[in-house]
């Protein structure tokens, strides 16, 4: 189970506020790295999304030191994305996207649908409403995956 993920943003505070709204949670400054914020879902899993300024890099510390941070300039697009179940319905999500002027479109991934929600029109979140989350978990259940991979390996 993934409990948290970090994403970059041009405006980390605003993006964390919108993610917190999608979670129906809250956001706060992230003390580990100034200028970063965290959106808390407030659920039983401790789900959260850390939002760093675009260009922040995490690099390993030396010896026993923890993670270190540095800034770098690169493309506004990244390969990292997350699929997140949220309590809102599709119209609520689309309303938030429209207000922010961010791309939001329902897409099929073949066996299940997601709402592509593009933070600042550059970072992808695949959002699953309660209905879409049921599709996802049904398709990717341990039983279905075992059957699928057993067929491929026979």
Overall description:
- With 154 residues, this protein is an alpha+beta fold.
- The protein has a single domain, classed as Roll (2,3-Dihydroxybiphenyl 1,2-Dioxygenase, domain 1), CATH 3.10.180.
- It contains 4 helices and 10 strands.
- The strands form 3 sheets. The protein has a 4-stranded mixed sheet with strand order 1-4-3-2, covered by helices on one side.
- A hairpin with a 7-residue loop joins β2 and β3.
- The radius of gyration is 17 Å and the shape is globular.
- It starts with a strand and ends with a helix.
At the first level of CATH, what is the class?
A: Alpha Beta
Strand order of the largest sheet: 1-4-3-2
**Helix share bin:** 25-40%
Number of strands: 10
**Biggest sheet details:** 4 strands, mixed
Output the structural class. alpha+beta
The termini sit apart by 29 Å
Encode the helix/strand succession as letters: EHEEEEEEHEEEHH
Specify the number of helices: 4
What is the global morphology? globular
CATH-scheme architecture: Roll
Strand coverage percent: 25-35%
Question: Poorly predicted ranges (pLDDT <50, ≥5 residues)?
Answer: none
Domain count, please report it. 1
Please give the structural blueprint.
Elements: E1 4-9, H1 12-23, E2 26-29, E3 37-40, E4 48-53, E5 56-59, E6 68-71, E7 82-85, H2 90-100, E8 104-108, E9 113-119, E10 123-128, H3 130-139, H4 142-152
Parallel strand pairs: 1-4, 7-10
Antiparallel strand pairs: 2-3, 3-4, 5-6, 8-9, 9-10
């Amino acid at each position: 189970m993934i409990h948290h993920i970090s994403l970059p943003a041009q405006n980390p505070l605003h993006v964390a506020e919108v993610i917190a709204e999608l979670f129906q949670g809250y956001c706060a400054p992230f003390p580990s790295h100034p200028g970063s914020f965290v959106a808390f879902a407030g659920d039983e899993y401790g789900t959260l999304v850390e939002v760093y300024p675009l260009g922040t890099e995490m690099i390993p510390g030396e010896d026993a030191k923890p993670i270190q941070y540095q800034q770098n300039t690169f493309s506004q697009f990244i390969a990292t994305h997350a699929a997140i179940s949220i309590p809102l319905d599709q119209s609520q999500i689309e309303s938030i996207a429209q207000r922010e002027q961010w791309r939001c479109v329902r897409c099929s991934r073949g066996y299940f649908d997601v709402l592509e929600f593009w933070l600042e029109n550059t970072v992808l979140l695949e959002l699953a409403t309660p209905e879409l989350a049921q599709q996802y978990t049904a398709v990717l259940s341990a039983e279905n995956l075992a059957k699928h991979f057993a067929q491929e390996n026979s």
